[in-house]
């Protein structure tokens, strides 16, 4: 799969990943801060006092109004990205990022150390670097997928303290380099927790053995969370809540039955795709060839990444994207109305993909570059989860039927057959 600023729709190799530091129950008030520090014009979530010392980290946030999503593991996830520009003439290294309830005077609810930051950071316009360093003039994007034990544990508003050190000034460096601090602890990245609930939808597939790959997780970047797209003069987390649904045989721990060089050998290939809600069809592409498995090709434009696909308008400015469909399988046309559970086509292996799987997401527009939208699936059964080694399936944290939850990374599910 492509990564970094490119489109990453291909199913990636499953990895066993560590966890972002768990967030305990906050101990401070969650009352929102004032609109600004009186007389300063400083925005909420930033330092409320002036100083003559340079503060060279310029901290922002993508998706500053987060909607918590209950995962199939019982954890409530908030998903967003911090942007941190190094405006110093010296390279920076982030050593810790604290999440703070309310404002800079609030309680620390979680801490990411340098290793965790490195595992969740990429540079704007590039790929993940595996470090917590921000070169001079570059912007780091730190992907946050924080898990909380309950809705009540998530502060109504929160900000961040970014702690960083700077390389020593060099003799041939800029004249003012020595005036910059050697270490900072800066505040920024103000986030509000929305009171809205995620949209509840039906399942896009049916049956047993559906494996959620590149889904929500709190450990490290995956082939969806690292997709940061510059479009329309802004940066978009275009696949923030996307899932790659592969179908596996739990007994053999494989997604194939036969020659892995043939699409027909993959358990997901030619499976029916179902409308997740009553909707209107707004995009259909069904003429592209299915590609050879395990051979990801090149793409010339962003739209080619999805291959054959159908986009449904669910209303309220929300669209459902079904990507990598089988050539010629679409059973709907633009302008058609569909009902939940109606078959709209078949799963294939077209576009930017490594093997037959459904890339599914909700988004704010009909194109892949639109902002990603959180959702939950109304009803499914969690039957297993890949263990920490990635070699076997164990019982999930919350086995059995799940209601209005999001299948998190490595979960294996059985979805009801809602075909009309």
Determine the strand fraction and express it as a percent band: 35-45%
Cα end-to-end separation: 34 Å
Helix-strand pattern, N to C?
A: EEEEEEHEEEEEEEEEEEEEEEEEEEEEE
Roughly what is the average pLDDT, rounded to an integer? Answer: 87
Low-pLDDT windows of residues: 1-22, 24-34
Overall, the morphology is globular
Helical content stands at under 10%
Report the biggest beta sheet as strand number plus sense, adding barrel if it closes: 13 strands, mixed
Instruction: Count the DSSP helices.
Output: 1
Summing up helix and strand content along with how strands pair, one would put the structural category as mainly beta
Number of strands: 28
Provide a compact summary of the structure:
This protein has 420 residues and is an all-beta fold.
What is the topology?
Elements: E1 57-62, E2 65-66, E3 69-70, E4 76-86, E5 92-101, E6 108-113, H1 114-119, E7 121-123, E8 133-134, E9 139-148, E10 157-166, E11 183-193, E12 199-201, E13 207-213, E14 228-231, E15 234-237, E16 243-247, E17 272-274, E18 279-285, E19 308-315, E20 318-325, E21 337-338, E22 343-346, E23 358-363, E24 372-373, E25 375-386, E26 393-394, E27 400-405, E28 411-415
Parallel strand pairs: 2-11, 12-25
Antiparallel strand pairs: 1-4, 3-4, 4-9, 5-6, 5-8, 5-10, 7-9, 10-11, 13-16, 13-28, 14-15, 16-23, 17-22, 18-19, 18-21, 19-20, 20-23, 23-24, 25-26, 25-27, 25-28
């Amino acid at each position: 799969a492509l990564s970094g600023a490119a489109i990453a729709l291909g199913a990636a190799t499953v990895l066993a990943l560590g966890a972002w530091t768990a967030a305990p129950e906050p101990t401070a008030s969650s009352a929102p801060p004032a609109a600004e520090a009186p007389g300063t014009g400083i925005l909420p979530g930033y330092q409320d006092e002036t100083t003559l010392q340079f503060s060279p980290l310029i901290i922002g946030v993508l998706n500053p109004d987060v909607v918590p999503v209950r995962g199939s593991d019982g954890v409530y996830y908030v998903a967003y990205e911090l942007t941190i520009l190094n405006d110093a003439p010296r390279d920076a290294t982030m050593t810790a990022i604290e999440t703070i309830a309310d404002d800079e005077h609030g309680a620390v609810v979680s801490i990411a150390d340098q290793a965790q930051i490195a595992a969740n950071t990429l540079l704007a316009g590039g790929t993940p670097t595996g470090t917590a360093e921000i070169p001079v003039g570059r912007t780091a994007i730190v992907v946050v997928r924080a898990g909380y034990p309950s809705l009540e544990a998530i502060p109504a508003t929160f900000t961040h303290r970014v702690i960083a050190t700077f390389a020593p000034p060099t003799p041939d460096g800029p004249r003012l380099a020595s005036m910059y601090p050697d270490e900072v602890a800066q505040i920024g990245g103000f986030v509000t927790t929305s009171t809205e609930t995620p949209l509840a939808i039906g399942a896009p597939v049916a049956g047993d053995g559906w494996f959620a790959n590149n889904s929500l997780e709190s450990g490290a970047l995956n082939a969806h969370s690292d997709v940061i797209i510059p479009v329309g003069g802004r940066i978009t987390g275009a696949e923030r809540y996307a899932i790659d649904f592969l179908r596996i045989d739990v007994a053999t721990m494989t997604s194939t039955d036969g020659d892995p060089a043939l699409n027909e050998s993959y358990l997901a290939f030619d499976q029916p795709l179902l409308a997740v809600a009553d909707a209107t069809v707004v995009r259909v592409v069904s003429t592209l060839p299915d590609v050879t498995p395990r051979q990801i090709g090149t793409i010339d434009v962003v739209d080619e990444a999805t291959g054959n696909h159908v986009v449904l308008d669910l209303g309220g400015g929300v669209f459902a994207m079904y990507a990598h469909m089988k050539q010629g399988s679409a059973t709907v046309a633009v302008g058609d109305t569909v009902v939940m559970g109606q078959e709209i086509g078949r799963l294939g292996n077209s576009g930017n993909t490594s093997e037959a799987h459904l890339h599914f997401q909700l988004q704010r527009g009909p194109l892949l570059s639109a902002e990603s939208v959180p959702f939950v699936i109304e009803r499914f059964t969690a039957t297993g989860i890949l263990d920490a080694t990635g070699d076997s399936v164990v019982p999930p944290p919350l086995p059995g039927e799940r209601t209005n939850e999001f299948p998190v990374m490595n979960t294996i599910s059985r979805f009801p057959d809602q075909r009309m």
